[in-house]
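Course exercise 7: structure representation. Students receive a sequence record and must write out the corresponding structure in token form. The form below is the worked example handed out in class, using glucan endo-1,3-beta-D-glucosidase (374 residues). Read each field label carefully; the graders check that inputs and outputs are placed in the correct fields and that the protein name is recorded exactly as given.

STUDENT ID: A-19
EXERCISE PROTEIN: glucan endo-1,3-beta-D-glucosidase
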Amino acid sequence: MTFSFYRYLVVVVSSIGINYGQIANNLPSPEKVVPLVKSIGADRVKLYDADPKVLKAFAGTNVEFIVGLGNEYLSKMQDLDSAQSWVKSNVQTYLPATKITSIAVGNEVLTFNDTSLSGCLLPAMQNIHTALVNLKLDRQVTVTTAHSLAVLETSYPPSSGAFRQDLKGCLSPILDFLSKSCSPFLINAYPFFAYKANPKQVSLDFVLFQPTDGIDDSGNNLHYDNMLFAQIDAVYAALGSLGYKTLPVQISETGWPSKGDEDEVGATPENAKKYNGNLLKLVSQKKGTPAMPNSHLDIFVFAMFNENLKPGPTSERNYGLFKPDGTPAYNLGFSGISSSGSNNTGTNAPSYILPPENPSSGEEFPGGALESYH
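STUDENT ANSWER:
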């Protein structure tokens, strides 16, 4: 298989991460993914497992990893011996050659269709952390879990963000654990879902970081010119309402599909280019959100590749920045590197071209439409 690798040369991107999912049967070997990850300027990778082939391939690269412990293991991790065995096999084995910095215990567990797992989450997190302490790894590896934005009961306006009442009993002790262990709160945020659900009311410009009038939040007297920032600040508000205003927030997933079903309005290469291109531009500017201007954006883009075996609508298989053959899924302004490895431009100087900021929608954004974006 021949690969054309692309170097993503954007003005110094501030700590961008990439989700590396592998629900596919046609992906390149991890050894071939290493230069591709580096080519887009990503210095962090988030896995949904602890794939030994990936962790070995990235040894010595200085790329930081969040490894995942799947929902199917949560019940077993309530046993400390099992947790210790898992950490030894899936984390300690690869340190320090591979820079594992965090373990994500489960994914969107509190909003998962198997509600029995909710009670397993915190004990599993605690046991994984205890295992790290026992192995003297707790100072270099944190323990957290990623949540869906559906954990919010209210999200508009952002200043009124609040967690669902039925989840507070589970969330409060988890937040206490994160705070005491100096671990971040992970949230998966997708403005695409809001637009897909209500394209006639939600402004496409607002969700794609395009020029727009935006919205004003009378609760905090702040202005929002894009939906992702509004979503993030709603999470900060929800955390603050429970007494965890200073808990760091990571956007563990966000992205835009380049293809979808007929009813998946907006899933196009053009919109994916605008969303991810403008997102990376914002990250490179080291901007915080309106409510947290001094907290840099900590974001993992979803995803590295289109994954052809993912279930669900067509969009689920088309979030990748890249196709399995190593070429971009759409033109995001990469400067090409030929299969021989030589840079087509003959230079390593910055050559990134930001997507044009032409407004793609003249719709006014009705504030109330934000109520459905989680």
